[in-house]
Write a structure and sequence with these properties.
alpha+beta, transmembrane, five-stranded antiparallel β-sheet, 27 helices, membrane, elongated, Multidrug efflux transporter AcrB transmembrane fold
């Protein structure tokens, strides 16, 4: 027997070594592949589920998400414009050049204004808008346009120089320039140019705008490298003598919520660990169990991190934060082993303890890993990482318990457990009566609650509810909204086989947008075709402007020029009949830069661009516009994310049912039909109770609570499996009470580490923690009454 036990110890030790070497080798391979770079990802956008769409469209959407999501506004306010501008200049000087910003702007570059005028003048025949073309094509429209041009020429003010009258008697350049400026005013914020900066006067205060786009480094969540930290370091000391700063943009809120969540969870994890250690000290009063338990947690955490890095090349910081809360789950294996190690007088070696616990620990491992494995199939990178992290860590803990712990000498004397004398069966307890009544009552109460509160039961996700603006953040966004009048929350992605197709599709979209938003505030938009029209539209512009040529001689005479200039004008017009503005050919560099935020370009053989509305004034109307074309897609991040999370929630519930069936099949290999149904009924009761309590509290079941439900599914099965294994022991000795005691201790430690997450103010963590705590309590109580005669 000793030789067999020794051989088994060596076999399990080899498996332990092989597993950890395999994970280490994969990690080292990743390091060489990534040239030694190990990245803890803290990007906001990588913690969100990706929308389901084709690869090219997804790439286009990610570019826009990054652009809009990393955009920040800093408004510097003061009753004095000079003071506000001076403070803004100080901030700009200190932030300019920082690697935390992809770009930052305060001053408006007017050096290209002459180039803009020249470009508009050169292509004045091609740039007429649809309304002007329609007016020119109407009876008498050309004459009215010519008269208006004369009125402008003899008026007090024009944007362009009257020196161009010899070549532009109808002031087409002036007309097009005013259309450009009007478009820019409607497409952006309500700020206007004043003394070289963008400013606005609202409610007796001047506001000067600094606009910036964060870099990847600057967008890192819960990091001291986050640009928000630098902004406050620069701005806070300047907030005095009437100068006030208003901060607006997603990064301010994402940084605050992630920082608060990280601090909360770190505190919760630390306190949980201290509570668990205190319990272990009270119970074991020896260093071996505590030292080896902590060592097991450390090894499993390192292994989990290495496995995650090896598979994904990086790890999100929230994966690590959530993974460290698995202390209670990982320590279960150690508790079951060391309770028998310290108190069970039937066992005299680690091999005997392992043989006693192996089946229960093995089935527990299978059920837990299966539940985490389900999350691998969710199209959500953060969940995949959490799944791999958790599985790798739990497998490591299990192998440590069965391969390493048996080498620890078992104490031959002083075998007792503190508080073991309290583990007595109550005199009133009768398993056949009380147990069945209590469990049946739990089913009845949960089902009854669902019947009464069924209207409250709903699977619904609302991303907006995950973070609630409070205090200064709420005040700043309210004030910024009043000043900027700019709140883009959705966009059209336009595609086409050629550049011309994309521009024509854009123009079709913007024409419909104008109808939808006629007379509405915030009805503007940004797009490429507003600056670079399609060739088709340029041809229409030339056709409409051609109607002015017969009036040219008379127009020149009215302006005091020789009528013979009309002949030169006609020659110039027809000589340029094939000259069109085309992307990448004759578009000035400064204009290409101006449209770079809206023009995406070629991806996988197709071309893409974006029409970015100033705001979504009518969501249903915008969706209808997109639905009318196969080349147009409307994306509203919040609404799309809600629907994506709804889809993920239903998908995970479906996988949950599959795992439920698989686990039942696995149990049938080890237990009778009656025992299998008894075990598998516990997760069903867990789900019913969680849903019932959520419905009673009028809390919608959403993605994060469902994830918690999946996790507690495996944890809850552990208790009933351990207890079922213990029931095979028919003796009434003190040793028979050890397994129920281990389960009780396991419940307390797991409830402390997981359930305490419910105290977090970060809604996703709160919902996961609440769901797990309710499930754990139901699992333990049902196990207490359902499967055993003792405890």
């Amino acid at each position: 027997m000793r030789k067999l036990a020794s051989l088994q110890n060596k076999t399990y030790l080899r498996i332990w070594i092989a597993y950890h070497l395999l994970v280490a080798a994969a990690f080292v391979f990743m390091l060489f592949a990534k040239h030694g770079a190990v990245k803890v990802d803290a990007d906001l956008f990588n913690m969100l589920p990706k929308p389901v769409m084709e690869k090219a469209l997804s790439s286009a959407d990610e570019k826009l998400t990054e652009m809009t999501g990393q955009n920040v506004f800093i408004l510097v306010s003061n009753e004095s414009f000079a003071e506000a501008k001076a403070a803004a200049e100080t901030v700009y000087a200190q932030l300019k050049g920082s690697p935390r910003f992809k770009s930052i702007s305060l001053y408006q570059d007017t050096s290209n204004f002459g180039g803009v005028l020249e470009f508009i003048q050169d292509f004045r025949w091609n740039l007429l808008d649809e309304k002007t073309c329609a007016e020119l094509n109407a009876p008498g429209g050309a004459e009215i346009f010519a008269q208006n041009a004369l009125a402008s020429a003899y008026g007090a003010f024009t944007m362009t120089s009257l020196e161009n009258l010899e070549t532009d008697p109808f002031l087409l350049g002036e007309h097009n320039l005013q259309n450009y400026l009007s478009y820019l005013q409607n497409a952006g914020t309500s700020m206007s140019l004043k003394d070289g900066v963008m400013a606005s006067f609202v409610k007796d205060k001047w506001y000067v705008m600094i606009r910036a786009v964060l870099s990847k480094q600057g967008a890192a969540l819960a990091s001291k490298e986050n640009a928000v930290v630098q902004i406050h370091e620069v701005c806070d000391p300047l907030e005095k003598d009437g100068t006030h700063f208003v901060y607006s943009g997603t990064p301010f809120h994402s940084y605050k919520s992630s920082s608060n969540a990280t601090k909360e969870i770190s505190i919760i994890t630390t306190v949980s660990m201290l509570v668990v250690l205190t319990i272990l000290l009270l119970i074991f009063k020896r260093p071996h169990p505590i030292v080896f338990s902590l060592l097991s947690i450390f090894i499993s955490t390192v292994t989990a991190m290495a496995a995650t890095f090896a598979l994904f090349g990086k790890m999100h910081i929230l994966t690590l934060v959530f993974g460290t809360s698995l202390i209670g789950s990982c320590i279960d294996y150690s508790l079951h082993y060391f309770i028998s190690w310290k108190a069970n007088t039937d066992f005299h070696s680690g091999s005997e303890i392992r043989a006693h616990l192996l089946k229960g620990l093995g089935l527990s491992l299978i059920s837990t890993v299966l539940c985490y494995f389900v999350l691998v199939f969710a199209p959500f990178n953060l969940l995949k990482q959490m799944s791999v992290f958790s599985m790798a860590g739990i497998v490591s803990t299990f192998l440590t318990a069965i391969a390493i712990y048996p080498y620890i000498p078992v104490p031959e004397t002083g075998k007792d457990v503190y508080l073991i004398k309290l583990m007595k069966t109550p005199s009133w307890y009768n398993k056949k009566f009380v147990g069945r009544v209590v469990v049946t009552l739990m089913f009845v109460v949960s089902i009854g609650t669902l019947l009464v509160c069924h209207k409250n039961f709903k699977i619904e996700n609302n991303v907006a509810s995950l973070y609630k603006m409070e205090g200064r953040e709420f005040q700043d966004e309210t004030e910024a909204s009043q000043v900027l009048n700019y709140s883009p929350s959705g966009w059209f992605i336009v595609s086409g086989r050629t550049v011309e197709d994309v521009l024509q599709n854009e123009e079709a979209v913007t024409a419909k947008l104008k109808v939808v938003n006629e007379g509405k505030a915030k009805g503007g938009y940004i797009c490429t075709s507003a600056f670079i029209p399609s060739i088709k539209k340029q041809q229409e512009s030339r056709a409409a402007s051609e109607r002015l040529l017969p009036l040219a001689a008379e127009q020149y005479e009215y302006l005091g020029y020789d009528a013979s200039l009309a002949s030169s004008l006609r020659k110039e017009f027809y000589a340029g009949k094939d000259d069109f503005i085309q992307m990448g050919k004759n578009v000035p560099e400064y204009l290409e830069r101006a449209v770079s935020s809206a023009w995406i370009g070629e991806i996988d053989g197709k071309y893409y661009s974006v029409v970015l509305p100033t705001s979504v004034t009518d969501y249903d109307a915008y969706v209808k516009i997109a639905d009318e074309s196969d080349d147009v897609f409307f994306i509203s991040k919040v609404r799309n994310m809600n629907s994506d999370l709804d889809r993920l929630s239903k998908m995970i519930l479906t996988l949950f049912v599959i795992v439920y069936i698989v686990i039942f099949v696995v149990l049938r290999f080890f237990y009778t039909w009656k025992q299998s149904f008894k075990i598998i009924s516990v997760p069903l009761l867990i789900v019913l109770f969680i849903v019932a309590i959520f419905s009673l509290a009028n809390i919608h079941l959403e993605f994060f609570s469902i994830v918690g439900m999946i996790l507690v599914f495996g944890l809850g099965l552990d208790y009933v499996i351990y207890m079922m294994e213990n029931e095979k022991r028919k003796d009434e000795s003190e040793n028979a009470k050890l397994e129920p005691f281990a389960i009780a201790l396991s419940f307390v430690t797991t409830a402390v580490s997981f359930g305490s997450l419910a105290l977090s103010k970060f809604i996703p963590v709160h919902m996961i923690g609440l769901s797990i705590f309710i499930g754990l309590a139901v699992a333990y109580v049902s196990t207490f009454f359902y499967t055993r005669a003792e405890f």
